[in-house]
Amino acid sequence: VSDSGLGFSHNRFIALIVSIAFLVVLFEGASELGGGMIKAQVEQTTSKFHPEKNAEDRLKPAMVLATEANIDNSVEETSEAVAAEWSAEGSCQQVIEGNDMLQFNLKEMVVSANCKEVTVTLKHTGAMPANVMGHNWVLTNNTDFMPVAQAGGAAGIENNYVPVGDQRVLAATTIIGGGQETSVTFSIDSLVVGDDYTFFCSFPGHYAIMKGAFKVI
Ligand SMILES: [Cu+2]
């Protein structure tokens, strides 16, 4: 056993070096583990704010709210405009528009019980052809609306998507495409004041959105 000159034995010196090396390795391992944990936590915390990650999910609620607000506004404005212009005599002539976005411009049509006949004119303000984005205007009572809409879809475009000879159909126009116009004139003698009627487009799938209330007052 030789003296190192520092007061340590050779074996003690080796043991000290090994201990230091062990501590260094242990420390590095620990800091890597700790660093990794911190890194993971930072990623977890910040990933939801990453501009691209989950961007759609984060924007969705705001967009839905905005869309609903827009629809509500447009309907409200339309209803107000219609209410302002409404007159018993004028209500016998109704004009409604359909577009390429599966929309009617009215959610409600109100006619006077004094109308001998009512004429509904449908204008397609879009540009798409009738076989792709065709629209018509069909009137039934509320309970017949769904079954007639479905029967209409099955009747085919050759029947304007209206079930042939179906007594539940109170009035119906032909199917038209973008830029076209059609109308139907019918008696409202069989309609009851205060009852609820539904107007809709019977082109397959459109009735879910393209519908509204028809009222006799
Ligand atoms: Cu339609």
Automatic annotation (TrEMBL):
PANTHER family reported in the protein's UniProt record: AURACYANIN-B, OUTER MEMBRANE PROTEIN H.8
MF terms in GO: copper ion binding; electron transfer activity
UniProt xrefs under PROSITE patterns: COPPER_BLUE
Keyword DNA repair: no
InterPro entries per record: Azurin, BlueCu_1, BlueCu_1_BS, Cu-binding_ET, Cupredoxin
Keywords attached to this entry: Copper, Electron transport, Membrane, Metal-binding, Transmembrane, Transmembrane helix, Transport
Lineage of the organism: unclassified sequences, metagenomes, ecological metagenomes
Alphabetical list of Pfam families matching this protein: Copper-bind (PF00127)
Organism: marine metagenome
Protein name (database record): Blue (type 1) copper domain-containing protein
Transmembrane intervals: 12-30
Keyword Acetylation in record: no
Residue ranges annotated for the Blue (type 1) copper domain, each copy included: 92-216
